[in-house]
Design brief:
This is NADH-ubiquinone oxidoreductase chain 4L. The structure is a single chain. By secondary structure, this protein is an all-alpha fold. It has one domain: Helix Hairpins (Orthogonal Bundle), CATH 1.10.287.3510. Helix 2 runs antiparallel to helix 3.
């Protein structure tokens, strides 16, 4: 019963992250934070799954390395966007 509650909490975290990602697409910072929330829920699910099958937690370190790289890349895009356009609105720049 305890494992089921943890899986449900992870699923709710994942769904909230996806809902924020889909609905709040005006600011880049909110989109990046929702992506990090989704990554955090995937990390929790991976940690729960690996502990359930009694496997090594080495893959969690690899996942954390890639998620930190993703966060740093998103932050650098945010900083360069604010330097060039003055804000983080998606409407203020064009992709062309």
């Amino acid at each position: 019963m305890m494992m089921l509650n943890m899986w449900m909490m992870i699923f709710v975290m994942f769904m909230f992250g996806n809902m924020i990602f889909v609905s709040k697409h005006k600011h880049l910072l909110i989109v990046l934070m929702s992506l990090e929330f989704i990554v955090l829920s995937i990390f929790f699910s991976l940690m729960l799954y690996l502990s359930m099958i009694e496997y090594s937690m080495y893959m969690l370190m690899v996942f954390l390395v890639f998620s930190v790289c993703e966060g740093a890349l998103g932050l650098s895009i945010l900083v360069s966007m604010i330097r060039t356009h003055g804000n983080d609105y998606f409407q203020s720049f064009s992709l062309i």
